[in-house]
Amino acid sequence: MFDARDLPGPVAEVRDEHAPEALVFDCERDFETLPPAQAEELGLVADSLQPATYPASWLPEDAPSLLARYAGSDLTIGMPGDGSVVWTRQTEPPVVLVKPRVEGTPEPFLQFLLAEAFVELGLEIPEHFIGFFEDAYPDLDAAVSLDPNGTYQVAAALYDGWVGLQSREVFAEWHDDRPELADAWQDAGSRLEDRVAGLPTAVARGETEFADATELACAAIKHAIELPAPFAALDTDAYRSHGPEYAIRWAEKTFDSLAD
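^ thats the sequence. predicted structure below, dont judge the formating
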């Protein structure tokens, strides 16, 4: 199920700097969330497994079943919205998993995705948004007037944006010593600019769901491109400093305005 992956020089350097103990594996099969039996196979390549667990009181009663499973005692690796490269600290040492869906991804961007995983591991941030919002997640749920899956998508996006406020500072330093990675980071941002700029119009016309728009806008934060309202309020030092409290207040104001 898991095959060790060799890393090119610049990516290996990023690992050595930010997550020197991390192991990297290609996965035999694609996944959104690894089936429990396959997740436990990580015990064959890691020294130990320690599932993430969170209090049930942190979840709304109608939380998606996968979120309840992640917060419970099951070893749950990979969640909706994680993308093609997944990292986890539920293993010792931490592990980065590359899904087969990366086939066809331009090599420079794939290298950036791997480097990004090591940077995020080095930030020592929560692995999932439930560890970010903690017992305030029901407050976000109350502020977001969407179904449970839509709320999950918004929460994941808001967490991604908060992480991006921190990781992009590292990416911006790569221009001098790791230009290939810096170019891939900038190129990905350039490809997002027109889509992000058009989000308010797309939402107003019903062409894009608000949760999808939030996901795209928050994903763009790590690329340091300009965001339109109401997402521009997330690209701030205040959000980085105040995290969940700020995100919930943003959601309250935003969904109140959408209801007017």
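The longest strand covers residues 23-27.
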